[in-house]
Specification:
Helices cover 55% and strands 8% of the residues. It is mainly α. The chain has a three-stranded parallel β-sheet with strand order 1-2-3, with no helix packed on it. Helix 2 crosses helix 3 and helix 3 packs across helix 4 (82-94).
């Protein structure tokens, strides 16, 4: 179990674990929201946009990145708002990037 997201370099840990036959669990692709917040801020500074819309798009990409990692069996997330549950389920249904 380790973080696996666009901001982590844990890919080797997951690959090695899978080579040993272990099931892998990736923790929060959003890094408790800190990485998500930082990426949303940068995206708005660079491209503009409505914060809630940008946040949903960035969160979608981050979750789908983690879910689509070939060496990740399960992704564990924590959700701070009920409305984000539906967004996360929709992202998962869209599949990997």
């Amino acid at each position: 179990m380790a973080p696996r997201n666009v901001g982590s370099a844990a890919e080797d840990v997951f690959r090695a674990s899978k080579a040993l036959g272990w099931r892998t669990f990736a923790t929060s692709p959003f890094n408790r929201g800190w990485l998500l917040d930082r990426l949303v801020t940068k995206a708005i500074e660079r491209e503009g946009g409505e914060p809630d819309v940008v946040r949903a798009g960035v969160a979608d990409a981050m979750l789908r990145f983690s879910l689509g990692s070939p060496d990740v069996d399960h992704v564990i997330i924590g959700v701070r708002r009920l409305e984000w549950v539906e967004q996360d389920l929709a992202s998962a249904a869209r599949g990997p990037l």
